Amino acid sequence: MAKKYSSKISYGLLVVLFIVFFSPIIINLIIDGVYKALVLLLLFLIIVYVFILHMFFKTEYLIEESQLQVRCGFFTYKPINILDIKEISKSTNIISSPAASFDRIEIKYGKFEELIISPKNKIQFAKDLMFINPNIKNNLA
To answer: Which of 15, 56, 118, 139 could form a disulfide with 99 if both were Cys (CB 3.0 to 4.6 A apart)?
Structure first.
């Protein structure tokens, strides 16, 4: 039976992205008024921001049989064999990853691979992985 975990979401990060995307446009609207190039730029930024929102709200981690599948919006990562996972630990790394929050965990697997994710229920997620592979070193607790 498959178990699905949604990504934890940092709404503060969404607010910061909104401010970065739209504050220059709003300031420009106030100073110069509306003109065609600004409207086109605003439309483009809205489309990009909606795409980012979709990625934030549709990031999920699926444990199915002995595979961990990661989906981030329209993107799907290569499945990870849970039996290859060596270690799970907390992470403060802000590297780009399929994690919609700064409350992240790092999964080390294979020879030198690692993945940074942010499931809502990290402890249960780790327990579910360890149920399949009891050799995983769990550094979350």
So the answer is: 118
